[in-house]
Amino acid sequence: MANKKNILIIGSGWAGSTLQSNLLTSKYAITVISPSPTTPYTPLLASAACGLYDFSLVETPVRHESSPIKFIQGKVRTIDFEKKTCRCRPFFEDLEDERFELSYDIVILAPGCLNQTFGTPGVVENACFVRNVADAMVIRQRIADCFEKASLPGKTEQEQRNLLHFIIVGGGPTGVELSAELCDLFNHSFAKLYPHLKAKPTIAIHDVAPNILSVFDAKLQEYALSSFSKRGVQIVTNSHIQRVDADSITTAEHGRIPAGLVIWATGNRCTRLVESLPVRLTPRLPRILTDSFLRVYGKDEQVLPDAYALGDAADIKDASLPTTAEVACQKAEYLAKSLNTEFDSPFKYEQKAIVAYLGQRDGVIAGEENNLTGQRAWMAWRSKNFWWTRSWRQKVLVVVAWILDWVVGRGIAPV
Fold it and tell me: d(Cα 49, Cα 143) in Å, to the nearest integer?
């Protein structure tokens, strides 16, 4: 044990989790510090929020009985790159005044990002986010509450329609897939559970951009718009949201719009740790700048010793890679191989097919060579969901969830 180098991984998201599971514990003593003791499977959160998956299927604990990796539930406040130490605090309200220090031989920065509200009043207080399992639980409960409130005696039809208007802010893959899952839920399971409210739920996607699914080409965007139009999902582009209230949003273009639930599925901002570090940052969304070997640049543009960064909180100089699970996992696998075998080839991102689910077994895929739409795209999306999970137990239970959804519908009782 004395001969092992100490690796400190900051963060337990896709990057941190993939890295720690691929590093050789025979070579390194690994410590993970994170506010969260689990890793969420973020591509599955929309499905879990809408009752397709049990919440235990869409996250995995950092601690494992068979793993010697040490976990600390806390937050790093500062890093001294010269002394190779981190000043930290526990992530518990009753212990927030305590401090402790961790030393390392190699530090991996993967703290992720936070929700970006763009300073819009009322977002934090009244909207739901989609970043972890706790967020998905809140969404599921709020959906159920909206239908139960609309079912109360004495509610007028307009009051019911206001309660059952669901607004998703953000026209990227997350927002689109949330809309698709809501559409499936309302048209199937909830149509049977709440027959008296059938045809009253409505869904709208608001985005400040001129189109949705901007990462897809124009032809696929048009297909997605047509698909949503057939299912009654309203697409509101060039929408500038001025505030979010408990029962509505206000936009510059359309004024006040009543809503039972607002889901904020757009925007990233960096953590306080990233802002405070003596490192180079990218413009706009500040991300830690690295070279092609994922080594961190200091303020003087020199690479810092034994410091690496990856995940949403980092980007490679002149690369401008997206903040996706795919990028995080590829970087983590590369860095684990680099540290395990000490090879010196630079990181090269391999663009995979981009998939988005549109509801009713329909989807779009932007492939490396050919684009796909329709049921084949939906099947590819399902397949990708299957492979995002890490354990075979979870993979089996995901398939069971598909079968149960087909046979008896979704389980979305209040949690």
Answer: 9
